[in-house]
Amino acid sequence: MSDKLKLHGFNNLTKTLSFNIYDICYAKNQKNRDEYIEYIDEVYNAERLTQILTDVTKIIGANILNIAHQDYDPQGASVTILISEEPLENALAKSNSETPGPSRETVVAHLDKSHITVHTYPESHPDNGISTFRADIDVSTCGQISPLKALNYLIHTLESDIVIMDYRVRGFTRDVNGDKHFIDHKIDSIQNFIPQDILEKYRMVDVNVYQENIFHTKMIVKDIELDNYLFGIGDAAFNSSEQDDIRERLETEMLEIFYGRNMQKGCADEI
After folding, report:
1. Which residue segments constitute the domains of the chain, with CATH numbers given?
2. Is the pLDDT of residue 22 over 50?
3. pLDDT value at position 216?
4. Which 3-state string (H, E, C) describes 244-263?
């Protein structure tokens, strides 16, 4: 559909991106696990999350009306930003083409309306050393531009092991002839809004319901460099057998999250 679609009144389409990320690590003992949770709470506290979401509002061209944020005891944080439409003055923001949005190094643009939220969920396995951090981000806009333009920035900023994305366009808007339009931009896949370096780093699965304007993409990192997943200790502290066991635990945790089901030990290679 053309970007030059002439509408009768305001664009009433609601475009919602639900963006879930998971970061996985191995913490050898309770002390390391506690330190990991403390680290996550510090790196992804309400103040930093507020800055990330503020950058997202710039990318999608929104005007901030109100910010509410909270750090929780013992762990986790939440941020909600109410946003409103403002004039689209930036050529990038006016584009709905299936291309990645700006990276975190080039946070420039302008867009639209509704709200942005984030909630974090750090947790750890009681026995096997696996610790997991999850963040849920929802970007909902009313108007011309899709929140998919924020994906490039979010994926690069959060650098996660697993990313699960749902995008839906709801409602309808009318053109000057009175005809209803249930979507105002072309989209075949969320992957078309993701840059090449990310596409090469992750394995991806799509489930799209085109007739309902529902799009789903999930990504899991291809390679596990073990030293990057050990919190508070390097891989040199483990012999080769221990390293293989830890790698299997990490892979199993990731695959269970990715596929949404529990697996028996030793089954990681079967999927």
Report:
1. 14-236 (3.60.90.10)
2. yes
3. 97
4. HHHHHHHHHHHHHHHHCCCC
